Every structure is written in structure tokens, then in C-alpha cells.
Amino acid sequence: MANSVPGAYMREELLSQPQTWARAAEMRDEQKVLPAAGARVAVVGCGTSWFIAQSYAALRETAGLGVTDAYAASEAFLDRDYDAVVALTRSGTTSEVLELTEQVKGKVPVIGVIGDPTSPLVDLVDEVVLLPFADEQSVVQTRFATTALTLFRASLGLHDDVARSIADAEAVLATADDSTLTEAEQYTFLGRNWTIGLAHEAALKMRESSQSWTESYPSMDYRHGPIAIAAPGRITWQFGVAPEGLAGQIEATGGRFVQHDVDPLADLVRLHRVALDRAVAKGLNPDLPRNLSRSVILDA
């Protein structure tokens, strides 16, 4: 990784998201490779890919297109009569995903959604959707994950939502962020239905890039304990529509409630920029974060 400017790759990649989303939205043939309506599906991934799998699973079930379960690849229960497994991975080299695919090969068809077309997973899966134009050099993922989710949304027929997300992301990136968003002591991210996965992903992005104290929960569950950490100088950030009364309850603690009237995926783009700016302000490089690498490859 040659660029010596901290976060330069992450910045370039997060800024390109409206363009990569638009490209994924037009991949109609590739979208047809994904499981058809009525199929029972397991979606697996690690880290960011697991959280995107959660969003896809919630969207697919909500659309009435079939049972869809999301698993961390290391904890998947695939003996439940699934018709297909969707394996999401940027690198295609993650040990747990490769091992899981080898275990189910010949038993359940596996569809890989992969960023690197040269990875070993490409030849191991039964069907493949490649997104090399969304692959990244930064260790901290931004555009691959959101581009994959855009592909999934489009495959479910949510074309109006995809179009709005692209327009909203362009608007977010064209507008300067509130600089105070980078200055909180602590961040909690909340979501409902498909945006729960986005909340988990947002928390991971802040931890990876800026070593920040972050948590994430389903919005309705936040009041069952976690609201105890809300306080002045701390932010609770809602992706999408908040439960009635929640904003007032958080503000009563002295904490700051954040919600934006944009497509939740576009709001994740805003968070990407906040995470990058917070990291750089702390003297960190999210392209090479502490203790992390592009892919987790375990020793045999």
C-alpha cells in the first residue's frame, strides 16, 4: 500500500460509492444469479459481510421472498434444508468462508458475491457474482459492502429505494458534515429491520478506523438497558425511522440524538466520512488500522 497520506484510499473509495452503486443496480444478469423468490436461503460472511448479510436477510424476508437467515460464517447452521447459501466476501480468502463452502459443496448450492476475481473462492462456489470495481485497497471497508447491498436491494425489486439511495448519497457527499459529529466521547448506533445490520456496521467502522467506544442495538431494545450509557458528550445515531418517543428519552439524558432524513444506506456513507475524519484527527490511518489486515486467513 504505497499511499502515505493517512486514509487516502478510504477517502477515495467512500467518495466513489454513488458510482459503484449505480453500476451494481444495472447488473441485471448478475442479480438473476441470486436466489429466486421462494427459496430458503442462508447468507454468510465475516465482520462487515455478516452485517450486510443481516440487512439482506431482513429485506428479503420483509419482501415476502422466502426464509432468509444471516450467519457469521464461523457459526452457521446449514443443516436446515436451505435451497442455497450466499457467501459474501470482499477478498474471497477469508478462512471461515472457504471452510464453510468446502463443507457444504455438493450438498447445498453456494453463490459467491466476491470482490477479488482471482480469489480461491471463485472456483469453489457453484455460481459467482463478481464486483471487482468495488474492491478496495483500504483495510477498512466502505464501498464493497454498500455496493453488494445495493446489488441485493436491486435483486429484490427495490429499484425506487436504490435510486433514492444513490441520489441521497450524492447529496450527502456534496455537503459538508457537522464537524461536531466527530467529537463525541461515545457512539451508539441503532436500527430497525434491515437497518439493524447498518447500525452494527457503523459501529464496526468507528471502532476499526478511530479506535472509538461504539455500540449498536435494535432501536426498540436500546431502552432495555443500553440507554444507561447515554449522557452529555455522547451520541445515539438512528439509521432510518426511530421508535416514537425515543429521541426525547435520549435528549432527556443530556445525550445527543442524531437522525437524518435520507436513505439509511446514504446515511452510512455520512458515517464513513465521520469515521475517517475522526481517525485522521486522532493521528490514525484507517487504511492500515491497528491489529487488522485486509482478510483474516487462519493458520491450518
From TrEMBL:
PROSITE patterns: SIS
Keyword Nucleotide-binding: no
UniProt cross-references to Pfam families, sorted A to Z: SIS
Keywords tagged on the record: Repeat
Domain of life from the UniProt record: Bacteria
SIS domain residues: 30-164
Keyword Repeat: yes
PANTHER family in UniProt: GLUCOSAMINE--FRUCTOSE-6-PHOSPHATE AMINOTRANSFERASE, ISOMERIZING (PTHR10937)
Listed name of the protein: Fructoselysine-6-P-deglycase FrlB-like protein
The species this protein was found in: Microbacterium murale
Lineage, broadest ranks: Bacteria, Bacillati, Actinomycetota, Actinomycetes, Micrococcales
